[in-house]
Design a protein that fits this description.
Elements (H helix, E strand, L loop, with lengths): L1 E4 L11 E3 L5 E8 L9 E5 L6 E3 L6 E4 L1
Antiparallel strand pairs: 1-6, 2-3, 3-4, 4-5
Length: 66
C-alpha cells in the first residue's frame, strides 16, 4: 500500500513537499497506513510554524492505493 498524490498519482515519500487545500506548504515527516477497511490512515507533516501534526491524507491531496 502506497500513499500517492491524488492528481499526479506519484508516490509520496518522507521529505516530500505537499500543500493543504488551504495552500499551506508542509514537509512529510511520516505516515501511517489505514488499519482496516474504511479507515483513512494519517500523514504527518511539519512546516516553519508547526513541529509536527497529523492530517487525514485528503487534506494535502493524497490517498492510499494498493
Amino acid at each position: 500500500m502506497n500513499l500517492i498524490h491524488s492528481k499526479s498519482k506519484e508516490v509520496v515519500k518522507i521529505g516530500d513537499t505537499v500543500f493543504s487545500f488551504t495552500g499551506q506548504k508542509y514537509v512529510v515527516v511520516g505516515m501511517s497506513k489505514p488499519n482496516y477497511d474504511g479507515a483513512t490512515g494519517r500523514i504527518y507533516v511539519k512546516n516553519e510554524k508547526i513541529d509536527s501534526c497529523g492530517f487525514f491524507p485528503n487534506v494535502v491531496g493524497c490517498e492510499w492505493t494498493t
